[in-house]
Amino acid sequence: HDNLTSIPVDGGSRTFSSAGGVMFSKDKTTLVCYPCAKKGAYTIPSTVSTIEAFAFSECMGLTGITIPSSVRTIGVQAFSYCTGLDFVAIPEGVRVIDEGAFLDAELSGISVPKSVTSIGYYALNNTDDDGNFLPVKKIKYAGTKAAWENIATVGEFDDDFSFRDYLRGASMEF
After folding, report:
1. DSSP string of 8-52, one letter each residue
2. 60-73 burial by CB neighbour count: b if 16+ within 10 A, else e?
3. Which residues are CB-neighbours of 144 under 8 A, at least 6 positions away?
4. Considering Cα of 66, then 69, then 71, then 72, what sign does the dihedral take?
5. How far apart are CA 50 and CA 44, in angstroms?
6. Residue 133: DSSP 8-state
7. Dist. CA 145–CA 7, nearest whole Å
8. pLDDT at res. 155
9. Are 72 and 48 in contact (CB under 8 A)?
10. Would you list the DSSP string of 51-111?
11. Residue-wise over 104-129: b if at least 16 C-beta within 10 A, else e?
């Protein structure tokens, strides 16, 4: 997995396809897996509506990501441990940022559109050496503070907490 720079898919597959070495669903609406040894920035095709769980996880050579407005869901830990990323701009149209989507990606900042209706636990967090959860340093939300407070928390966790509880200390911009 650490040396994988391309994911070839047999042209006869009824389920999957490959473009530029990246694995997609046959109809290219779901990005399934990005090869972890591939380096540089990547632009997700505009046919994609779902970034599958763990699709980019541990792709430390990924230095930039362009997410198209066609994407509606960023799956569980989709970009976890992508430490080559610095700032991610999530476009208007994305509705779900699932559990741990950017966990330990060590982002300096992220912009969240007002189209987001739910954010999962630890989606925008890093952990320190002691296992404590730390928020992404800067979060820019395109909506109002009141709208931010109404975003639902997705995932299984203690009902007394929300994703916002793990973002205390982040620099918030509305």
Report:
1. ---TT-SSEEEETTEEEETTSSEEEE--TT--EEEE--TT--EE-
2. bbbeebebeebbeb
3. 174
4. positive
5. 10
6. E
7. 42
8. 73
9. no
10. E-TTSSTT-TTEEEEE--TT--EE-TTTTTT-TT--EEEPPTT--EE-TTTTTT---SEEE
11. bbbbebbebbebbebbbbbbbbbeee
- In the sheet that 87-89 helps form, which strands lie side by side, from edge to edge? 87-89, 109-112, 138-141, 171-173
Residue with tokens 């109002």: 144
Tokens of 133: 């959860």
Two tokens at 145? 């503070």
Alpha-carbon distance of 126 to 103, in angstroms, equals 6
pLDDT for res 158: 59
In the structure encoding, which two tokens stand for residue 148, read together?
A: 């931010």
Q: Is the pTM of this model over 0.90?
A: yes
Instruction: Give the tens place of pLDDT for each residue, 117-163.
Output: 999 989 999 988 998 888 999 999 999 999 999 999 887 665 667 78
Quick: pLDDT tens for 67-118.
999 999 999 999 999 999 999 999 999 999 999 999 999 999 999 999 999 9
pLDDT at 120: 92
